[in-house]
Each structure stands twice: as structure tokens, then as C-alpha cells.
């Protein structure tokens, strides 16, 4: 698996700054952010290149290091309020998320009237590396911690307004129709096999709850302080509870060099999670097919980014290779 730190110069479609409803000097925005949150004068800032949504900016001041998540022009005020509420509730529930910083007015969200009203939240910067950057999977103890965090997330008593996410597993049919013409015939057959299994799942009758929805290597961090941190609640929704476990098994615990199959990984996740939040027989029965659909969505999501959105980046190739290899390993037998 490749480390996704960008070394190439971003093209227009790759550059996170182009996602903003603002085309001016980002430096002056950073200065105003620092003033609004009272974190001291910035000495340096940099844009994080990985990811397809929003614009994340690391800000260094004499007082410390912070991350500003500047919301993209595709998010309206309702969506921004939804996201900030979710982050606050996650922190309140004891989820290991980077601490949120409030403005001098006690607000989590700051909107810059001099930058076309772009809105953002500010968090403490946590020193560490995601498991994508580490090119590894969590060890056994870390896996237990991740599952504990997932259980905390799933117990959050919040039913957010529905947010359509093209990558979410329940939207597999819509994704398939959108990108099927771009997929090679042999790979198309693998996706159709995964979809056939998913369609048999009684999704609507499975237990639903608040779900982070993206417990991937890119969003789980091993902090330098030894803690595990959960990042990026941007696609959190009210979903079948096993969606959380499916993503963990399909992505976070995937190791190309390991002999563990997806079936092995789902059994491991079931065993750990069931001790904290007992699962129903139906959830246990259908997790494998749900996780298999998750792999198919990674593969199709990569096609969407490359052929529809024009994101021909290393990150897109990562998703394409991950999905293709995962499907072939499970279904080419």
C-alpha cells in the first residue's frame, strides 16, 4: 500500500483551495481565523493535500499547532451546522477526537465575512500518523481500542439530518449505474457478484444507529502520545449499525501481505464488538456481505473520482487498487 502524502504539484482539480467559495489570499484568512479563535499570531501554515472534501489547513502559532477545517463551497449552512454538531456530540460522548477550539464568542464555527463568508472549525493538531501514512494495520491492542471507539460512536444519541454520500454502502446501486461504463468487464463481474450478495441483506430491518461511516486507515490515527484518534465525521449518518464494522473489516484491517481473508476480519471484528454492544443474529449473518459491498464501493468510488470528477491522483489510484485487489482476493476463486 502506498503512502499518500502528495509529492506532486496539485492540479486545479487536485488543489483543496479550489473547493472554497473564495479565491483570494489564504494567508489573510488564516490571520483572521487566529484572531477569532485567539490562538496567537500565525508563524506558518500549510494545506493538507489528501482527501476529496473541504480544505484542511495546519496553522502554527507561538501558542501551539492547530487544524482549520474550511468547509467547501458545496456545503450550505445547514450542512455546516450538522457537521459541527456531530463533532461536538462525539467529543461529549468521550470519542477520541482532536479537541475543538471555540471562538472568543464561544462558537465552534467561524465565518469570515471578508472571504465570501467561508466557514470553518478549528481543532488542536494531534501529532501522529494515520494508519494509511504508516502503511500498516492497528495491532491487536489498537484494534480493541478502535472497536471501543466505534461502540462509543454508535451509542451517541443523535439522529442527524440525512446526508447523501455517494460512497456510502447503501447507495451501491446508484454508484453502480453511474460508473459501470468505465469498468473493465472482468472487474464488472466481480462488482456484480458483490452487489448480488448485498441485495439479499434486509438492510431496512437491521438495527440502525448513529454511524461514523468512514473508519478507514485514512481516518484512524496513532498519536505520538500512544492514543488512537478518530478523525473526520464528514459522512456520519444514521445507518445500519454493521456499516461501521463493515468499513473496519474491509479497509482498516486489510493487509495485502496478510493471509487473513475478509471473512477472517469480519469474524474478528464481530467478536470484539459483540462484547461491548451485543449484535443481533441478523447482523452477524450479514456482516460479511455488507463488508464485501464496502470493498466494491471503494473500487467504484475510485472510478467515480478518476473518470467523472477527473481526480487522476495517487489517492485515487490507491482506492482503485485497494478495491480491485480486495474483490479479486474474495471472489476470484
Automatic annotation (TrEMBL):
Residues 46-276 form the Aminoglycoside phosphotransferase domain. It comes from the Bacteria. It holds the Pfam family APH. GO terms for molecular function: amino acid kinase activity. InterPro entries: Aminoglycoside_PTrfase, Kinase-like_dom_sf, Pseudomonas-type_ThrB. Belongs to the pseudomonas-type ThrB family. This is Aminoglycoside phosphotransferase domain-containing protein. It comes from Candidatus Portnoybacteria bacterium RIFCSPHIGHO2_01_FULL_40_12b. The lineage of its organism: Bacteria, Candidatus Portnoyibacteriota.
Amino acid at each position: 500500500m502506498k503512502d499518500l502524502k502528495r509529492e506532486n504539484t496539485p492540479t486545479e482539480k487536485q488543489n483543496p483551495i479550489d473547493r472554497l467559495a473564495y479565491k483570494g489570499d489564504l494567508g489573510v484568512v488564516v490571520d483572521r481565523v487566529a484572531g477569532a479563535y485567539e490562538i496567537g499570531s500565525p508563524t506558518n501554515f500549510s494545506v493538507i493535500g489528501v482527501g476529496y472534501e473541504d480544505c484542511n489547513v495546519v496553522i502554527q502559532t507561538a501558542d501551539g499547532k492547530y487544524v482549520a477545517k474550511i468547509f467547501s463551497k458545496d456545503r450550505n449552512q445547514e450542512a455546516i451546522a450538522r457537521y459541527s454538531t456531530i463533532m461536538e456530540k462525539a467529543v461529549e460522548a468521550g470519542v477520541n477526537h482532536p479537541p475543538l477550539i471555540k471562538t472568543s464568542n464561544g462558537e465552534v464555527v467561524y465565518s469570515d465575512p471578508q472571504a465570501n463568508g467561508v466557514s470553518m472549525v478549528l481543532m488542536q493538531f494531534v501529532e501522529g500518523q494515520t494508519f494509511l501514512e504508516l502503511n500498516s494495520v492497528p495491532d491487536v491492542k489498537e484494534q480493541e481500542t478502535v472497536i471501543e471507539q466505534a461502540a462509543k460512536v454508535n451509542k451517541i444519541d443523535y439522529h442527524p439530518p440525512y446526508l447523501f454520500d455517494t460512497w456510502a454502502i447503501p447507495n451501491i446501486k446508484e454508484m453502480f449505474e453511474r460508473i459501470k461504463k468505465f469498468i473493465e468487464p472482468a472487474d464488472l463481474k466481480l462488482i456484480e457478484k458483490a452487489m448480488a450478495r448485498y441485495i439479499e441483506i434486509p438492510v431496512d430491518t437491521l438495527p440502525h444507529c448513529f454511524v461514523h461511516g468512514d473508519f478507514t486507515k485514512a481516518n484512524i490515527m496513532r498519536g505520538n502520545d500512544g492514543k488512537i484518534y478518530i478523525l473526520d465525521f464528514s459522512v456520519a449518518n444514521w445507518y445500519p449499525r454493521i456499516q461501521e464494522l463493515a468499513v473496519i473489516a474491509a479497509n482498516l484491517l486489510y493487509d495485502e501481505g496478510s493471509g487473513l481473508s475478509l471473512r477472517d476480519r469480519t469474524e474478528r471484528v464481530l467478536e470484539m464488538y459483540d462484547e461491548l454492544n451485543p449484535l443481533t443474529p441478523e447482523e452477524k449473518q450479514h456482516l460479511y456481505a455488507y463488508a464485501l459491498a464496502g470493498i466494491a464501493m471503494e473500487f467504484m468510488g475510485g472510478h467515480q473520482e478518476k473518470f467523472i470528477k477527473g481526480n487522476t491522483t495517487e489517492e485515487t489510484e490507491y482506492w482503485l487498487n485497494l478495491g480491485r485487489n480486495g474483490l479479486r482476493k474474495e471472489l476470484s476463486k
